[in-house]
């Protein structure tokens, strides 16, 4: 198959919906073979089967990246099935709105365990394999709320801000190892997670989407495909001298 990622092996976490699923679709179109993971096993099997029928070689592993041993085993599973790992897209994440005083211990720990710890555990395991190969690429999906603060988002901001700094530190550690590590920082994106947030606010999806669009300088909400296109670019050879950056995909939401 032709494409920017022909003969490449790409692992995508959080691949059963939203940005992760959009990345799976686009990397498949660009010729990659895929290993997908997420907690929604039936949905994961549907996506795997759909992409396999379209001619992409796809594996799926259900699991929770909060579990370090699962992350280690996921990389081993990928290498057993495909022989190597070229690109990791760390897309799994959760959002639970709460102010500082409303943030319970459980909410705090769960948010950091998924958004930060899971990304670190998976990236660390991937780095071990990429060092053996002598090459690799990691894209962490952070958030515009990793760059600026937000109301009702103390745990989320802390987790995504940490992902931004983790990305910089990892990139410096491996800048001479032919391994590039970058982050993307999307704003509000039209995903099931965003729809659940609208419901929590007492809004219908149409009203929520309009509010998000009205608040954005470009006058629209991000699509998952916008973020997937950025992921494909920053993981591609066209971005070969880019590492350690956190790229806003936000329609200028963080520009002022």
Can you give a write-up of this model?
- The chain has 256 residues and is an alpha/beta fold.
- It has two domains: 9-187 and 223-242, NAD(P)-binding Rossmann-like Domain (Rossmann fold, 3-Layer(aba) Sandwich); 190-221, no CATH class.
- It has eight helices and seven strands.
- The protein has helices at residues 18-29, 41-53, 68-82, 105-133, 154-173, 192-200, 205-215, 224-235, and strands at 9-12, 33-38, 58-62, 87-90, 136-141, 179-186, 246-249.
- Strands 3-2-1-4-5-6-7 form a seven-stranded parallel sheet, with helices on both faces.
- Strand 5 (136-141), helix 5 and strand 6 form a beta-alpha-beta unit.
- Helix 4 runs parallel beside helix 5 (154-173).
- It is globular.
- The model has no long low-confidence stretch (mean pLDDT 97).
The CATH homologous superfamily of the largest domain is named: NAD(P)-binding Rossmann-like Domain
User: How are the strands ordered across the major sheet?
Assistant: 3-2-1-4-5-6-7
What low-confidence regions span 5 or more consecutive residues with pLDDT below 50? none
* Structural shape: globular
Give the H and E element order.
Answer: EHEHEHEHEHEHHHE
Q: What structural class results from the helix and strand content?
A: alpha/beta
CATH class of the largest domain: Alpha Beta
Radius of gyration: 17 Å
- Count of DSSP-assigned helices: 8
CATH architecture of the largest domain: 3-Layer(aba) Sandwich
């Amino acid at each position: 198959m032709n494409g920017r990622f022909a003969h490449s092996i790409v692992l995508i976490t959080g691949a059963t919906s939203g940005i992760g699923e959009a990345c799976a679709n686009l990397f498949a179109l660009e010729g990659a073979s895929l290993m997908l993971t997420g907690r929604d096993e039936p949905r994961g099997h549907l996506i795997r089967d759909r992409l396999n029928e379209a001619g992409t070689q796809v594996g799926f592993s259900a699991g929770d990246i909060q579990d370090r041993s699962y992350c280690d085993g996921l990389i081993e599973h990928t290498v057993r099935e495909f022989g190597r790992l070229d690109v990791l897209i760390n897309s799994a994440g959760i959002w639970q709105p709460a102010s500082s005083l409303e943030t319970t211990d459980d909410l705090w720990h769960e948010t950091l365990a998924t958004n930060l710890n899971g990304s670190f555990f998976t990236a660390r395991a991937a780095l071990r394999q990429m060092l053996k190969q002598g090459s690799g690429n990691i894209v962490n999906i952070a958030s515009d709320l990793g760059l600026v603060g937000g109301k009702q988002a103390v745990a989320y901001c802390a987790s995504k801000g940490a992902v931004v700094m983790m990305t910089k530190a990892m990139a410096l550690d491996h800048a001479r190892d032919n391994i590039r590590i970058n982050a993307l920082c999307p704003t509000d994106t039209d995903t099931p997670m965003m729809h659940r947030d609208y419901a929590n606010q007492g809004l219908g999806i149409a009203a929520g989407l309009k509010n998000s669009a009205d608040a954005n300088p470009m006058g629209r909400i991000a699509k998952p495909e916008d973020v997937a296109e950025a992921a494909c670019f920053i993981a591609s050879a066209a971005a070969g001298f880019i590492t350690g950056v956190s790229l806003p995909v936000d329609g200028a939401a963080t520009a002022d």
